[in-house]
Amino acid sequence: MSSAPSAPPALPPGLDLADLERVACTVAREAGRLVLEDRPRRLGTSSKSTRTDVVTEMDQRSQELLLDRLGALRPDDGVLGEEEGGRTGTSGVTWVIDPIDGTINYLYDAAEYAVSVAAVVGDPARPGAWRPVAAAVLGPPSAELFHAHLGGGARLTTPGGSRVLRANPVTDLGLSLVGTGFGYDAALRERQARALVELLPRVRDVRRHGSAALDLCAVACGRLDGYYETGLNAWDRAGGELVATEAGALVGGEVGGVTTRDLTWAAAPGVAEELAALVRELSARHVGSVGDPA
Ligand code: IPD
């Protein structure tokens, strides 16, 4: 099991969180434009952890663009990305980036994928030792940009305007729409399916959209009442978890309000306690520890 820290990591002095949010939005938009406009008809892919877990040439190119642009705009910050590359910094801020979250949707030219960019403080390589402080999650095909900074609220900006996000006022878990997702390892998927069999009769229905970052933003904007998943990496969840929290959703893991690789859940406040208790119990009983990284 991952262990949670007793206190959240402190903010480096003088950090301008609104500026970090602007940087996140700028680079997410640039990477979003690249993956949307330069997507070749035949995507080059190679496999990663399993045969079904692929990286496309555009995941790599998007990560390279994000590394370059963050290096230009925030040269003292570190970067931890899903794909190859990354660097350590000196400022106390690390950008945790998923150049394409929802790669399988992208591979099939389905719309639900995202570029997720989060500024975090603490050590994103250590479970429970970091927290996001500014973020942008962009759905390139929809041009929906979800963004937030700590204490500043969450917003959805589209070409048509911008609005503040609030999680749903739902209070009945049995009437709640809950999202989830699955890992790439066959044995893990079998355990996740067992947990799902017990959850499904207890909620209104379940959705598997295929992008954890967008699922967390869906809780923020009321398209889902709750979401949970086991096996998420920091880059899958860092951006969306801040957007959800800033929209008034509750977010956590096996204990307390810290998401981990072993469990990440997010829910509208009126059903959060009940959903958290349920998914904690089901994932402990069926899924167990997924292990490192953070
Ligand atoms: C995946 C997506 C998916 C989730 C998987 C993630 P990727 O990220 O977020 O929704 O179910 O657990 O690995 O591989 O597309 O960046």
Summarize the structure in words.
The protein is α+β, with helices and mostly antiparallel strands and 294 residues long. It has 2 domains: 17-164, Fructose-1,6-Bisphosphatase, subunit A, domain 1 (Fructose-1,6-Bisphosphatase, Chain A, domain 1, 2-Layer Sandwich); 173-287, D-Maltodextrin-Binding Protein, domain 2, CATH 3.40.190. Helix content is 34%, strand content 24%. The chain has helices at residues 17-37, 57-73, 103-107, 186-199, 212-221, 234-246, 269-287; strands at 45-47, 54-56, 78-81, 93-101, 114-122, 130-139, 144-149, 154-158, 161-164, 177-180, 205-207, 226-229, 250-252, 264-267. α1 (17-37) packs antiparallel against α2 and α5 (212-221) runs parallel beside α6. The protein starts with 16 loop residues before the first helix and ends in a 7-residue tail after the last helix. The model has no long low-confidence stretch (mean pLDDT 94). The structure holds D-MYO-inositol-1-phosphate. D-MYO-inositol-1-phosphate is lined by residues 82, 98, 101-103, 181-183, 210-212, 229, 231-232, 236.
> How much strand content do the residues show?
15-25%
The total number of structural domains is: 2
The total of helices stands at 7
Uncertain stretches: none
CATH homologous superfamily placement of the largest domain? Fructose-1,6-Bisphosphatase, subunit A, domain 1
Beta-strand segment tally: 14
Arrangement of strands in the largest sheet: 3-4-5-6-7-8-9
End-to-end Cα distance? 11 Å
- Name the ligand types: D-MYO-inositol-1-phosphate
Rg over CA atoms, rounded to whole Å, is 18 Å
**Secondary-structure element order, as H and E?**
HEEHEEHEEEEEEHEHEHEEH
- Alpha-beta content class: alpha+beta
